[in-house]
Amino acid sequence: MSKEKVLLAYSGGLDTSCILKWLLEQDYDVICFMADVGQTEDFVAAREKALKIGASDVVVKDMKDFFVEKFVWPAVQMGLIYEDRYLLGTSLARPCISKGLMDVAAQRGCSYISHGATGKGNDQIRFELSCYALHPTIRVIAPWRMETFCQRFQGRSDLLEYAKRANIPVSATPKAPWSMDANIMHISYESGILEDPSVAAPEEIYQLTQSPTRAPDTPTVAEIVFKAGLPVRVTELVSGRTMEKPLDILAFLNKAGGEHGVGRIDIVENRYIGLKSRGVYETPGVTVLHCAHRDLEIYCLDREVLRVKKYLADRMADYVYNGYWYAPEAEYVRKCIIESQKHVSGKVVVEMFKGHVMVTSRESINSVYNQELASMEVHGNFSPYSSTGFIEINAVRLREHHRVFGTANMTKHFSRTESDMKLI
């Protein structure tokens, strides 16, 4: 009788290497899957390692273009940012990787998939919800949620001992006191010494960006062209160098932004599972794109459309963070937001300099900005006398509130007593 096939999302690291061996001990035929989404990885060495441990095959799929064009670019177009700070680099990669995982699972006739995500994190949810949405009958083996596995392996020391006994190659390089996840969009760091939010992340943690204090003394200036909310061309204005392919655009902005320390954040965020976690992120290129897109969007969109779109983008960011990229509500909201972007076309000039990105100019034939109407030099078609009535109408409710409740005393809400100060 043939063994049941398991497709393991494999990284080549300690956890998934030990999980590979453990699955083989459970008498599964294990195929390893690796998605290249732009992380720095020796895929040849990882493949050899998995085959040496006992995998029947290793599939490495180049998904960089697919990731940028189908996930990163739509996120820029939609203006997605979780809790006003996190640009969702890891969250966007998971449904991308899941698509590759499920395609290979179907091609190879795998009944199960397996992964090394922990029971406390977001990734277990993102992977599994994405996989179930794409292939409802797939079964999942999540060792870090299985009692037999968790009783045997409490943590890294137990895995190292197991690896030694099983002749699993382990890197001789000391493990950094934090965990890291990387792709072409960003690098995230968490766990280890970062679990104490009161301790600053060490400078040596950063790989995509250098400290703004060591950034060049001359800004990098680039012109970014958008069409229907999507970046289509970037030109470095000093050299005239132009990029049009999405992967090339992102690579250039990652390098330029990284040199100026753009895109670093250190935050405490709300995980979907109910915990708060501390994360450190580097997202230089998409930080620049997000800033430019937001500026052009405000320039082109009607005020009320912009506010509705912002509400929908907040909901969509939650869906992506929580693992619902392929859910029907996400598909619906995505279509609504994309509809708002049909007039968001034009060009934006940005300046990257010592940790900051600043928009210095913008142009669009679709802008609802009317220079003559907005000018303080001429009245144009605007009647300043009409403002009197506008103010009178808007003052009605304020006067009525005063009639019923009296004068608002806001100062008492902001004054601090000596006892208040003791709590700080």
Characterization of this structure:
The chain is of the alpha/beta class. The protein has three domains: 5-175, HUPs (Rossmann fold, 3-Layer(aba) Sandwich); 180-372, Alpha-Beta Complex (Argininosuccinate synthetase, chain A, domain 2); 376-412, no CATH class. The chain has helices spanning 14-25, 43-53, 64-78, 89-108, 123-134, 147-152, 156-165, 246-259, 284-300, 303-322, 328-340, 371-374, 386-405, 411-414, 418-422, and strands spanning 5-9, 29-36, 57-62, 112-114, 139-141, 179-182, 187-190, 220-227, 230-236, 242-243, 264-270, 276-282, 346-353, 356-363. Helix 2 (43-53) links the parallel strand 2 (29-36) and strand 3 (57-62). Helix 1 crosses helix 7 (156-165) and helix 10 packs antiparallel against helix 11 (328-340). The longest helix is centred in the first third of the chain and has 20 residues, at 89-108. It is globular and about 90 Å long. It starts with a strand and ends with a helix. The mean pLDDT is 93.
Provide a concise account of the structure shown.
The chain has 424 residues and is an alpha/beta fold. 43% of the residues lie in helices and 19% in strands.
The second-level CATH architecture of the largest domain is Alpha-Beta Complex
CATH class of the largest domain: Alpha Beta
Query: Which of globular, elongated, flat, extended, rod-shaped describes the shape?
Result: globular
Beta strand %: 15-25%
Query: What structural category do the secondary elements indicate?
Result: alpha/beta
CATH fold descriptor of the largest domain: Argininosuccinate synthetase, chain A, domain 2
Largest sheet: 5 strands, parallel
Strand order of the largest sheet: 3-2-1-4-5
Domain Arginosuccinate synthase-like N-terminal: 5-169
Pathway: Nitrogen metabolism; urea cycle; (N(omega)-L-arginino)succinate from L-aspartate and L-citrulline: step 1/1; Amino-acid biosynthesis; L-arginine biosynthesis; L-arginine from L-ornithine and carbamoyl phosphate: step 2/3
Domain Arginosuccinate synthase C-terminal: 178-399
InterPro entries: Arginosuc_syn_C, Arginosuc_syn_N, Arginosuc_synth, Arginosuc_synth_CS, Arginosuc_synth_type_1_subfam, AS_cat/multimer_dom_body, Rossmann-like_a/b/a_fold
